[in-house]
Write a structure and sequence with these properties.
single chain, 160 residues, alpha+beta, 4 helices, 7 strands, 34% helix
Length: 160
């Protein structure tokens, strides 16, 4: 029991990464989030990655989510749909050369960049479906990154 309390205390006191470690930790959390969101199905795990006061804005869908619970509930529905054999499946790929990460003193970090989206129906072939820009704010809380704000915009077709 004491070991668990000490581990929890150490995690809560873990300093926020700085310099190159900041970029690396945000890039890793970004990859983990999008892999889970588009290809996984674990609502409880997704919830641990989100700040309670999450806000998600989308240039096509509007003010999509106003808190973490709404996003997790929507994600759970998507999981069930993706499990059907003939449904569309998506994948997101970060354009690593576009990634910008900056600290937000006393809070966390901002991340911005471009990403590409791929689709396939069922087990069919995957094709590049579109591109977009994003900006996200990550809160450093209890020794881990929690997604707090999302702007998803400039969605469009990919030019050949």
């Amino acid at each position: 029991m004491i070991e668990i309390l000490l581990a929890a205390a150490f995690t809560a006191m873990a300093p926020m990464p700085e310099g190159p470690a900041l970029r690396a930790s945000i890039e890793a959390r970004d990859a983990e989030l999008f892999e889970l969101f588009f290809r996984g199905c674990d609502p409880a795990r997704l919830r641990t990655m989100l700040a309670d006061d999450l806000e998600f804005y989308h240039d096509k869908g509007g003010f999509v989510f106003r808190n973490a619970e709404d996003m997790v509930a929507d994600y759970a529905k998507q999981c069930a749909e993706r499990a059907k054999p003939d449904r569309w499946r998506s994948r997101r790929e970060l354009v690593r050369s576009s990634l910008i990460v900056d600290p937000v003193p006393g809070h966390g970090a901002m991340e911005a960049g471009d990403h590409l989206f791929y689709e396939r129906k069922g087990d069919g072939p995957e094709k590049l479906a579109g591109k977009a820009r994003f900006a996200m704010v990550w809160k450093w809380q209890d020794g881990q990154w929690k997604l707090s704000r999302v702007l998803s915009y400039a969605h469009g077709a990919v030019e050949p």
